[in-house]
Each structure stands twice: as structure tokens, then as C-alpha cells.
Design goal:
There is one protein chain. The protein is about 60% helix and about 10% strand. It has a five-stranded parallel sheet, with helices on both faces. Pfam families: GerE, Response_reg.
Length: about 220
């Protein structure tokens, strides 16, 4: 394999960290592991502006960089391009930060006390499409957030009639093609409706939409419906 092949296959990473020394150390670590750091920022605003254009495989985001939250950067990036995986890097385990990390659609939550090898391994797993959270813990957090959203007055306001119908069909487990056939739409149009519904409800994937519908039905008809 020549160097050009290696460059093509290398994992592309973007770094956001408010401390230059930490950022430099992380960059050196990842580059030693054969990854390519395509960009780095000290502030959240700069990262949010640059990452969508650079399209790294993984963005490693400090939870609390200067000028804003890395978690919000993750939320914005994932709303624009879900192919970019995000890892949140925190000083220590904080339950509130962890919960926000899950809800932002990140692939994992890392503490800075982890060894360099563990951080590099997490980046590789995220680049491969893995989610590093415990599935039961992730479901618990998402379920609580969905239930809280549904309990607020006007929780369903903001969806158009067609979007509401798309949500119902997502709850039935339909694919984009099946939704398109059911609603007599082009498949691309159905996909756009699905994306709009997920964005308006603050959800990140179709299984969350199905859970949202199921919980709404239980709330409407009672647990034995």
C-alpha cells in the first residue's frame, strides 16, 4: 500500500478544545495513531462554522470550550450532516453533561483521564459508526426526554398535517419508500419530511420517532391500550 492509499483510508478528525496544550497533545496522539487532524479550533463558534465544510469523519469536542458548549456544536453539526460523528470530551463524569451529550446525538462521552490509547480507540469506533453509550442507559435518557417533551402543552404543535402523518407512519416502522408510496410522494420528498419531523421533535433517528409515537399512544389511551 503506498502513502496515497494510506491517506485515503486515514480517519479524518477535527478537534475543539479551549486549551492549546491539550489540543496539541491530542493532535499529536491521534497523528501518531495514523489519523489525520484536518482542523482544530479554540472556540465553539469557529468549530461550528468550519466542521461542516471540512466534513471530518469524527469531531472530538471539548464539552466546555471558550465561547460556548461543544455539545451545542455537536447538535448543530448532526442537524446538518449526520455522517459526521461527534465525541464529547469532558474533564470528568457529569450526569447533566452526559445526558445532554446523548440528546445531542453524539457517538460517545469521554473523560480526559482516559489513556491516549483508549481515546484513539474511541475515535476509531466512532468513525466506524459505533455508538459508545450503553444501550439501556441511552434508552433511559431518550425516553425521559421524550416523555418530558410530550407532557408540555403544545408538544405536537409545529408539525404540519403531512409531517404529522409521516410521524404516524414512522411509528408503524415504515421505510422512506413505504412512506412515499402511502402518501403518494417522491421518495426524496418523503426523506425530506422525515428529516423535518426528526429535527422539529429534537430526535436523531427513526427508532426514537417510533418510541415517541408509542409513548404518545400510551399517554392518550392509557398503559393497557
Amino acid at each position: 500500500m503506498d502513502s496515497s492509499d494510506e491517506a485515503i483510508e486515514a480517519i479524518r478528525v477535527y478537534l475543539l478544545d479551549g486549551h492549546e496544550v491539550s489540543r496539541r497533545g491530542l493532535r499529536d496522539l491521534l497523528e501518531e495513531q495514523g489519523m489525520v487532524v484536518v482542523g482544530e479550533s479554540e472556540t465553539a463558534a469557529e468549530a461550528a462554522a468550519r466542521i461542516p465544510a471540512l466534513r471530518p469523519d469524527v469531531a472530538v469536542l471539548d464539552a466546555r470550550p471558550a465561547g460556548g458548549a461543544g455539545i451545542e456544536v455537536c447538535r448543530r453539526i448532526r442537524s446538518i450532516d449526520k455522517s459526521i460523528r461527534c465525541l464529547i470530551l469532558a474533564e470528568d463524569h457529569d450526569e447533566q453533561v452526559f445526558r445532554k451529550t446523548v440528546l445531542a446525538g453524539a457517538s460517545g462521552y469521554l473523560v480526559k483521564q482516559l489513556s491516549g490509547q483508549d481515546i484513539a480507540a474511541a475515535v476509531r469506533r466512532a468513525a466506524a459508526g459505533e455508538v459508545l453509550f450503553d444501550p439501556e442507559e441511552e434508552d433511559r435518557i431518550l425516553s425521559a426526554a421524550i416523555e418530558a417533551r410530550q407532557s408540555r402543552p403544545g408538544a405536537y404543535e409545529g408539525l404540519t398535517p403531512k409531517e404529522s402523518r409521516v410521524l404516524e407512519l414512522l411509528g408503524q416502522g415504515m421505510t422512506n419508500r413505504q412512506i412515499a408510496d402511502e402518501m403518494v410522494l417522491a421518495e426524496k420528498t418523503a426523506k425530506n419530511y422525515v428529516s423535518a419531523v426528526l429535527a422539529k421533535l429534537g430526535l436523531h433517528h427513526r427508532t426514537q420517532a417510533a418510541l415517541y409515537v408509542a409513548q404518545a399512544e400510551r399517554r392518550r389511551h392509557g398503559p393497557h391500550a
